[in-house]
């Protein structure tokens, strides 16, 4: 169901009047400009194979259907609250359609029929919904009525709502994302990080979604792939129709449908300026990240998927400061075994040619849901509130066999690489005991490998802890006694400190890494590490924001890991800074209690640096 916001005017006009330009604002997530036709994701999701059930599974299947109905109702209700941002005439057109969808998700013929098919034909819920929708749609089209277009539209609505149900029942990513039409702007209600991992940056010009926040994993993935993106664009999926011409500005956070000639010309100018700036920044590749007073700063890359390796090389990163291994577990129904992991890590470590690579063990949970772990071969229940449940190291300590395979694979790769080339990192640490427990498993796996004849270095690769919960930050001095290094994850640290979901559009305005509470925790953890002369880095999204470089340097940090495309800009910032100035500036910022004032100071300092540079 896609309506034609912006076309209403055209329909009222004579002949082929141009549809009116509609701008939809969202959260700027990945810079760059895209010009191209909209491609929406209302296509059928992954082919849901026909599924039969046993008589004893009927109740369970009906419950599954009830769950998907409730979830779909919530989605549609949310869309309804959001269309308020669209032009009035578009709202008038869309609201009744959404009401019809809500009705169909009530005690409708579709739902009653699907339930009956589960009971009498013993069909899986998604098969039952698909069959019933097809039967209803065919019957509608066959009705005796002159308004054939009206009948086709009604049939389309039934199929639409069935698709939503099937998508929610199967929870499968849009596998069609792999081969989108070249140069399109992908528009979707929501993309999971696993969906985003399937996108080909050579084909997709831009991405815009209704859901999502600036530092959620989907946003991180899109930045990593260098795809211009706007998330949290409320009203967009209702306003956009497949094939609509559009302009997406990832820095401004705006998607413009049916752009006027002036808008299009301005977008082309920005596109050219962006390319020019990128070419200029690429000249920094071989220059050192050194402040004006000679302080060396280490700029490393975060890696989400191996496809990023060429970008990392182009950016001149000094190694990988955060290798998120989740990609190995995404979009598959089984688990990667030790050999598959060895192969994947080897490819990355070899590509880095002796630069250090910090491999983080699986951070499952929260928004990073993975089929094999959620309901497949090794079911793990993250709890009613997954962000606060079995996530990261907590889950791995409950399922040590997963940790053992990963440790074994990393140890074998480290043995084949040079000394110090590989380090291990533990996600979602909250208490020192978790690091101690992980280290015991680590050493046990090393002993087992040695018995198996593997030649491991006498000193095992360093084992570090992510500092990404307020508990870990405030207990950093105690955790520092157990860990070999710290990597401060400001994305989760901000989320857990402020109680704001990093990937949720509704509360995105409250997600603020410059909140003094977050900054104080970063400072506390950094100082705990520096007191022990222990390596410490920042690998959250803050690290890649050049405006924040002076503050982080001033707090005492010297190692930053970020998405590769951010490295040149951060290097440019580093090369214009003096450490003494940064330290004075950080003291001033840390005295503040008002986030708005901090933002002002940060922006002011950055402007001064630009002027001085
Ligand atoms: C973080 O939380 O800041 C972090 C780097 O980890 P992730 O984004 O993978 O959760
Ligand atoms: Mg994290």
TrEMBL record:
The active site is at residues 217, 539. One of its GO terms (biological process) is phosphoenolpyruvate-dependent sugar phosphotransferase system. InterPro entries: PEP-util_enz_mobile_dom, PEP-utilizing_PTS_enzyme, PEP_util_C, Phosphohistidine_dom_sf, PTS_EI, PTS_EI-like, PTS_EIN, PtsI_HPr-bd_sf. Its cofactor is Mg(2+). Residues 1-21 are annotated as: Disordered. It comes from the Bacteria. It is found in: Cytoplasm. Residues 1-12 have a biased composition (Basic and acidic residues). Its EC number is 2.7.3.9. Residues 180-253 form the PEP-utilising enzyme mobile domain. GO terms for cellular component: cytoplasm. It catalyses: L-histidyl-[protein] + phosphoenolpyruvate = N(pros)-phospho-L-histidyl-[protein] + pyruvate. Transmembrane segments: none annotated. GO terms for molecular function: kinase activity; metal ion binding; phosphoenolpyruvate-protein phosphotransferase activity. Keywords: Cytoplasm, Kinase, Magnesium, Metal-binding, Phosphotransferase system, Sugar transport, Transferase, Transport. Phosphoenolpyruvate binds at residues 324, 360, 491-492, 502. Residues 26-145 form the Phosphotransferase system enzyme I N-terminal domain. Its main location: cytoplasm. Residues 279-577 form the PEP-utilising enzyme C-terminal domain. Gene3D superfamilies: Phosphoenolpyruvate-binding domains (3.20.20.60), Phosphohistidine domain (3.50.30.10), PtsI, HPr-binding domain (1.10.274.10). Mg(2+) binds at residues 468, 492. General (non sugar-specific) component of the phosphoenolpyruvate-dependent sugar phosphotransferase system (sugar PTS). This major carbohydrate active-transport system catalyzes the phosphorylation of incoming sugar substrates concomitantly with their translocation across the cell membrane. Enzyme I transfers the phosphoryl group from phosphoenolpyruvate (PEP) to the phosphoryl carrier protein (HPr). Belongs to the PEP-utilizing enzyme family. This is Phosphoenolpyruvate-protein phosphotransferase.
């Amino acid at each position: 169901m896609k309506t034609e916001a912006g076309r209403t005017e055209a329909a009222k006009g004579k002949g082929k009047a141009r549809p009116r330009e509609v701008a939809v604002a969202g959260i700027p997530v990945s810079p760059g400009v895209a010009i191209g036709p909209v491609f929406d994701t209302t296509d059928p999701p992954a082919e849901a194979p026909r599924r039969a059930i046993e008589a004893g599974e009927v109740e369970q299947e009906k419950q599954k259907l009830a769950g998907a109905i409730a979830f779909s109702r919530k989605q549609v209700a949310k869309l309804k609250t959001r269309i308020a941002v669209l032009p009035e005439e578009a709202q008038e057109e869309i609201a009744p359609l959404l009401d019809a969808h809500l009705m169909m998700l009530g005690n409708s013929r579709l739902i009653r029929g699907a339930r009956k098919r589960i009971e009498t034909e013993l069909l899986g819920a998604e098969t039952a919904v698909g069959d019933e929708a097809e039967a209803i749609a065919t019957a509608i089209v066959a009705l005796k009525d002159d308004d054939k277009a009206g009948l086709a539209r009604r049939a389309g609505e039934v199929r639409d709502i069935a698709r939503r149900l099937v998508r929610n029942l199967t929870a499968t990513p849009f596998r069609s994302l792999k081969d989108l039409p070249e140069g399109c702007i992908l528009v979707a209600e929501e993309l999971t990080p696993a969906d985003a991992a399937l996108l080909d940056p050579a084909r997709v010009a831009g991405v815009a979604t209704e859901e999502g926040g600036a530092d959620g994993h989907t946003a991180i993935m899109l930045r990593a792939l260098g795809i211009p993106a706007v998330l949290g664009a409320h009203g967009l999926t209702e306003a956009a129709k497949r094939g609509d011409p559009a302009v997406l500005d990832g820095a401004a956070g705006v998607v413009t449908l049916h752009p006027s000639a002036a808008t299009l010309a301005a977008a082309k100018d920005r596109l050219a300026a962006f390319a020019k700036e990128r070419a200029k920044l690429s000249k920094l590749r071989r220059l050192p990240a050194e402040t004006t007073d000679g302080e060396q700063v280490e700029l490393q890359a975060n890696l989400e998927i191996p496809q990023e390796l060429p970008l990392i090389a182009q950016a001149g990163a000094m190694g990988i400061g955060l290798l998120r291994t989740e990609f190995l577990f995404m979009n598959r129904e089984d688990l990667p075994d030790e050999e598959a992991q060895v192969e994947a890590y080897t490819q990355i470590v070899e590509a880095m040619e002796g630069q250090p690579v910090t491999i983080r063990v699986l951070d499952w949970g929260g928004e990073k849901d993975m089929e094999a772990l959620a309901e497949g071969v090794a079911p793990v229940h993250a709890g009613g509130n997954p962000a606060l449940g079995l996530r990261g190291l907590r889950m791995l300590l409950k399922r040590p066999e997963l940790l053992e395979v990963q440790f074994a694979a990393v140890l074998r790769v480290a043995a084949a690489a040079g000394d110090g080339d590989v380090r291990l990192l533990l996600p979602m640490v909250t208490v020192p005991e978790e690091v101690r427990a992980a280290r015991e498993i680590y050493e046990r796996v090393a002993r087992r490998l040695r018995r198996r004849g593997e030649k491991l270095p006498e000193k095992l690769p360093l084992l570090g802890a992510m500092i990404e919960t307020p508990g870990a930050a405030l207990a950093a001095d105690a955790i520092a006694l157990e860990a070999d290094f710290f990597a401060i994850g400001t994305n989760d640290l901000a989320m857990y400190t402020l109680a704001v979901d990093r990937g949720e559009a509704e509360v995105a305005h409250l997600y603020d890494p410059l909140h003094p509470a977050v900054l104080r925790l970063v400072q506390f953890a950094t100082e705990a590490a520096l007191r022990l002369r222990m390596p410490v880095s920042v690998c959250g999204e803050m690290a890649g924001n050049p405006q924040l470089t002076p503050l982080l340097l001033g707090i005492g940090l010297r190692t930053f890991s970020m998405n590769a495309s951010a490295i040149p800009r951060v290097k440019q910032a580093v090369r214009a800074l003096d450490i003494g100035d940064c330290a004075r500036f950080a003291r001033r910022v840390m005295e503040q209690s008002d986030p708005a004032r901090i933002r002002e100071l940060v922006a002011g300092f950055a402007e001064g640096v630009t002027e001085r540079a």
